[in-house]
Design a protein that fits this description.
single chain, alpha/beta, 6-stranded mixed beta sheet, binds adenosine-5'-diphosphate
C-alpha cells in the first residue's frame, strides 16, 4: 500500500502555501510537523479533496486519487482540525449520522459504532450529549468518526489540540493502536505527540519540506 504525493503546489492568490511537495507514504504513522502557516492543513485538505491543488499529483497504489474520486473517499478517514459538534446530539447519534454520510447501511453502522466506541473508550458514553463531553472525549469521538469505515489512509489534523498531558498520552496510545495496518498522517506542532509513535517525521516550513527523517535522527539534529 502506497500513497505518493508528487510535486504538489498550491497558492492562495499571491500566497504560496505549498511548493513542490513530494512524499511517499507506506503503512505506519507519519508526523507532519511545522509552525503555523507551514502548509500542513493545506496539504491535508488537498489529500481529502477539500482544497484543489494547482499542480502535481497524488496516487494511491499507482492510481490518481482524484480520478478514483468516491472510491478513494471510501478508504479515507479524516479528522479535521476544527469541527463543530452539535451539542444536543448524543455520541451515538453523531456517529450514526457520520456512518450514514459514509454510505454505511444501518446494520453496518451499528456494528462499527459499537466496536469503534469501545476502541476509543467511549462505549459507556454514547447516550450522553456531546455538549457534556470533555475536550478529550470530543477529540476521541472525532477520531472515532474518522475510523468508522476502517480507512486505509487516515488523516488527523492536530488531534491533541487543547488537551492536557494525560489526554495527549491517551490519544497517542490510541493512534498507535489503530495505525498498524494504515497509512496515518498526523499534523501537529507538538513533537512529543509523534516522536514515540511516528516512523518518520516530516518537517514542513513555508510550504516546503525541510526533511523527512526517523524521530531519532531528528532528535540528534535538534
Ligand atoms: P498550517 O496548517 O501549517 O498552519 P495552512 O495550510 O493553514 O498552514 O496555511 C498555509 C499558508 O496558506 C498560510 O500562509 C496561510 O495564511 C495561507 N492560507 C491557508 N488557507 C488560506 C485561504 N483559504 N486563503 C488564503 N490564504 C490561506
Ligand atoms: P433512529 O435512526 O430511528 O433514530 P437510533 O439511531 O436511535 O434510531 O437507533 C438505531 C439502532 O441503534 C436501534 O436499533 C437502537 O436500538 C440502536 N441504538 C441506539 N442508541 C444506541 C446505543 N447507545 N448503544 C447501542 N445501540 C443503540
Amino acid at each position: 500500500m502506497k500513497l505518493e504525493i508528487q510535486n504538489l503546489s498550491k497558492s492562495y492568490g499571491e500566497k504560496k502555501a505549498l511548493s513542490h511537495v513530494s512524499l511517499t507514504l507506506t503503512p505506519g504513522v507519519y508526523g507532519l510537523l511545522g509552525p503555523n502557516g507551514a502548509g500542513k492543513s493545506t496539504l491535508m485538505n488537498i489529500i481529502t479533496d477539500n482544497v484543489r491543488l494547482d499542480s502535481g499529483e497524488i496516487c494511491f497504489n499507482g492510481e490518481s486519487i482524484f480520478k478514483m474520486g468516491k472510491r478513494f473517499r471510501k478508504i479515507l478517514g479524516y479528522m479535521p482540525q476544527q469541527q463543530e459538534l452539535y451539542p444536543s446530539f448524543t455520541g451515538w447519534r453523531f456517529l450514526n449520522y457520520m456512518a450514514a454520510l459514509k454510505g454505511m447501511t444501518k446494520e453496518q453502522a451499528k456494528q462499527e459504532i459499537l466496536q469503534t466506541a469501545k476502541l476509543v473508550n467511549l462505549d459507556g458514553d454514547l447516550n450522553r450529549r456531546l455538549g457534556g463531553y470533555s475536550g478529550g472525549m470530543k477529540q476521541r469521538i472525532l477520531i472515532a468518526q474518522a475510523i468508522l469505515n476502517r480507512p486505509q489512509v487516515l488523516i488527523l489534523d492536530e488531534p491533541t489540540a487543547g488537551l492536557d498531558p494525560k489526554e495527549r498520552i491517551r490519544i497517542r496510545n490510541l493512534i498507535s493502536k489503530i495505525a498498524l495496518d494504515k497509512i496515518v498522517l498526523i499534523a501537529t506542532h507538538v513533537v512529543s505527540d509523534i516522536e514515540y509513535i511516528a516512523k518518520e517525521i516530516i518537517l514542513l516550513k513555508k510550504g516546503e519540506i525541510l526533511s523527512q527523517k526517523e524521530p531519532s535522527a531528528l532528535a540528534e539534529e535538534l
